UniProtKB/TrEMBL annotation:
This is DUF4159 domain-containing protein. The keyword Signal applies. Coiled coil: none annotated. Residues 1-23 form the signal peptide. The lineage of its organism: Bacteria, Pseudomonadati, Myxococcota, Myxococcia, Myxococcales. Residues 41-237 form the DUF4159 domain. Keywords: Signal. It holds the Pfam family DUF4159.
Length: 256
């Protein structure tokens, strides 16, 4: 007896195609990157409004993955300064809108130790304050954490402004200052502080809309904010490697 071939229904075909598409979309076990290889930014919690721009770091990470070879984690990780494990985060992010209570002495000591051993901290004033609000609280804590390293404007020729992009201006939701400030330890920038609300320029809603306008420079100012963020991440990971690369042609000429 010759059996007729079994007919497959349209519904079954669609189910099979959907299953194949799902399997193709899932990461393969052998090609998935291990978690330690991803750049995860530690978002410092404090007693005030510590997360005023919830989507900001996630969006910066997306731009880092698109523009550079950095593999970012899906989002930032909330961290407490009074808990062990700060060494897991090469880049910390301290943000806020409005004043916040003073850190405890153990918190200050833990942050100081982290920065002295090579950690990097980006401080971002979401309220665009100058002399009050978040600005006053941040300056108080930074002076207490690194009392021998006062905040100083970062000069335009510093390697921070050429780690990936060549920068000659600043970006953010607002432009309170045309520079960023930093605290240096043995020539390395351990803390970078901006009053221009970088997070407000990075923040984007789930529908893909920018959450805040950038004034006075509009979208060009937003693009500069992303470039500043990329340079900061590159500096946190590689410090002054780009400064050495700038001098490479001169070194090679001397050797020849």
């Amino acid at each position: 007896m010759i059996r007729r071939p079994r007919l497959i229904s349209r519904r079954a075909l669609l189910r099979g195609a959907a299953a194949a598409a799902l399997a193709a979309a899932l990461p393969r076990r052998g090609s998935a990157l291990p978690a330690p290889s991803l750049l995860a930014i530690g978002h410092v919690q404090h007693g005030g409004n510590w997360n005023p721009r919830p989507s900001a770091i996630r969006r910066l990470g997306w731009e880092l993955g698109r523009r550079t070879s950095i593999e970012p984690a899906p989002d930032s990780v909330p961290v407490r300064l009074d808990r062990p494990g700060l060494h897991r985060w090469p880049m910390l992010y301290l943000a806020g809108a409005g004043p916040f209570p003073a850190f405890s002495e153990p918190e200050r000591a833990a942050l100081r130790r982290h920065l002295q051993y090579g950690g990097f901290l980006l401080v971002d004033a979401a309220d665009g304050s100058d002399g009050d609000g978040f600005d006053a609280s941040a300056r108080r804590e930074l002076a207490a954490v690194l009392p021998t390293a006062p905040l100083q404007p970062v000069p335009r020729e510093h390697v921070l402004n050429k780690t990936f992009y060549l920068l000659d201006r600043q970006g953010g939701r607002v432009l309170v200052k045309p520079w960023v400030e930093a605290q240096a330890l043995d020539g390395r920038l351990a803390v970078v502080y901006t009053q221009n609300d970088l997070g407000g320029a990075w923040a984007r809603s789930e529908l893909g809309e920018w959450e805040y306008p950038c004034t006075p420079g509009g979208e060009a100012q937003r693009e500069t904010a992303f470039r500043v963020g990329v340079n900061l991440a590159m500096y946190a990971l590689c410090t002054d490697y780009k400064d050495d690369a700038v001098h490479l042609p001169f070194i090679m000429r001397r050797r020849s």
